[in-house]
Amino acid sequence: MREYLLCLVTAAAVTYFTTPIARSFAVKWGAMAEVRDRDVHALPTPRLGGLAIFAGFLAAILVASQLSLIGQVFLGGREVTSLLVAALVLVLLGVADDKWTLDPLTKFAGQVLAAGIIAFGGISISWLPIGGIFVLDPMSSVLITVFVVVLTINAINFVDGLDGLAAGIAGIGAAGFFAFSYLLSVANGLDRATLSTLTSAAVVGVCIGFLPHNFYRARVFMGDTGSMLLGLLLATSTITLVGRVDPAAVGSTALVSALLPLALPLVVLALPWLDLGLAVLRRTWAGRSPFAPDKEHLHHRIMEMGHSHRGAVLLLYGWAIALTVTVVALAFIPAGYALGGGLLLLAIVTLVLRSPPGQRLSQDRPRVEAS
Asked: Minimal CA–CA distance to 53: which of 223, 285, 244?
C-alpha cells in the first residue's frame, strides 16, 4: 500500500506543479477555449491542462519502475509499453484538437488507433460472461477491447462540461477501481502488484493534482488532451482488472466478484452516458444532427433547478461516489447491506446539496462547454 501511495502522491505533486506551465504554454501558443454563443464562460480560457496530467502519470510510472513490489509490473510483458505508446498517441491527438479543433472522424480514427495499440499490446478482454463463460477468439477480443476503450474515452470526454467535473468523476472512478483491485488481492491472496492498481492510483493522483487549478472558477481546462487520456487510463484499469479474474470462477460463488470489474465503469459513468443517449434522441427528434451542441444536458438542467455551479458539480460527485461505493461494497459485504447503504448515501447527498428553494446564485456563473 505504501508504494501505491507514493506513486499517487508523486502523480499529484507533478501534476499540480506542471499545470501552471501547461497553462502558460497554452496562452502563448493560442490554445484557448474561446467564448462562443453557446458557452457560458465569460473569458477565453487556456486548454492543454492534459499535458500536466500526462506529466504526472509519467512521473508515477517512473517512480513505480524503481520500487521493489510494484516494479514487478514491468517484468516480462508489453502491457506498460503499449499503454505508454497509446497514451502518447492520444495526447498528441488531443493537443492538435485543443489547438486547431479536429473534425470528429479524425478524432475517432486516433482513438481507434490508440485502442488498437492497447489491444495488440496484451491488454485485452479475453472472455465474456455469456451463458456462463464465453472465451473470445483473438479477433473478437481485439474488436471488443477497442470498443470498450473508445467508449470510455468518449464518456470522459463527454462529461467534461463543468469546471472540475471530468477530473472529479475520473478520480472517483479510479478510486473505486483501486479499492476493488487492492482489496480483492488482499482477500484472495493474489499478487498485489498489478497494472490495474498502479494505473488507478496514478489517475487518482493526477486528478487530485489538477483539480485545484480546474475547479470553479477554472484557470485552465484539461481539454481533449486530458479527457481522452483519462478515459484511456480508466479503460486500461478496467480491462486489466477483468483479466485478473479466472474465467473458471464464473458461475461459481465468485460470480459477483467476477462480473463487478465489468459493471463498475458502467455504473460510474451511468449518468454521462444517460445524458448522451438523451441528447442524441432529443436532437434527432428535433431534426438536428446528434453532434449538434445544445444547453439541455443534465448539468444544465440541474443548474436551472437552482443549483450553483459548485453545487451541480458536487451533486454529480456525490451520485458517482454513492454508485461507486455501492458496487465495490457488493464484492465484500452482503448485497442487502451494500444496496441499502448506497441508497441511503445517495439520498443524503441529494438532500444536503439541494439549493434553497427559489435561490439563484447568479454570481456563480458556470463555465459550460455545450457538447
From this structure: 223
Q: Are 56 and 230 in contact (CB under 8 A)?
A: no
- Residue 366: predicted pLDDT: 46
Distance CA 332, CA 334 (A): 7
Could you count the other beta carbons within 10 Å of the beta carbon of residue 366?
23
Q: Which amino acid is at 108?
A: F
Which regions of the chain are under pLDDT 70?
Answer: 35-42, 76, 129-132, 186-193, 243-262, 265, 268, 272, 276, 289-295, 297, 299-300, 353-371
According to DSSP, residue 215 is labeled: S
| Number of Cβ atoms within 10 Å of the Cβ of 120 | 16
Give dist(CA 263, CA 371) in Å, integer. Answer: 26
DSSP 247: G
Would you tell me how many other CB atoms lie within 10 Å of the CB of residue 163?
A: 25
How many whole angstroms from its chain centre is CA 165? 10
Say how far apart CA 211 and CA 199 lie, in whole Å.
18
Is omega for the bond preceding 360 within 30 degrees of 0, making it cis?
no
Give per-residue pLDDT as tens, 306-345. Answer: 777 788 888 889 888 988 888 888 877 888 898 899 889 8
217 preceded by a cis bond (ω within 30 of 0): yes
256/258 Cα distance (integer angstroms):
5
Find cell 462540461 and name the residue: 161
The H-assigned helical ranges of 194-334 are 195-214, 223-243, 255-268, 270-285, 298-304, 309-329
Of 249, 203, 259, residue with least CA distance to 83: 203
**What are the distances in angstroms from CA 185 to CA 119, 188, 201, 257, 286?**
24, 5, 15, 12, 50
Report CA-CA distances (Å) from 181 to 6, 146, 317.
Answer: 17, 22, 21
Q: Which of 213, 216, 204 is nearest to 172 (CA)?
A: 204
What pLDDT sits at residue 118?
95
Q: How far apart are the first and last CA of the chain?
A: 39
Q: From 310, 303, 312, 315, select the one nearest 345 (Cα to Cα).
A: 315
The grid coordinates listed for 165 are: 467535473
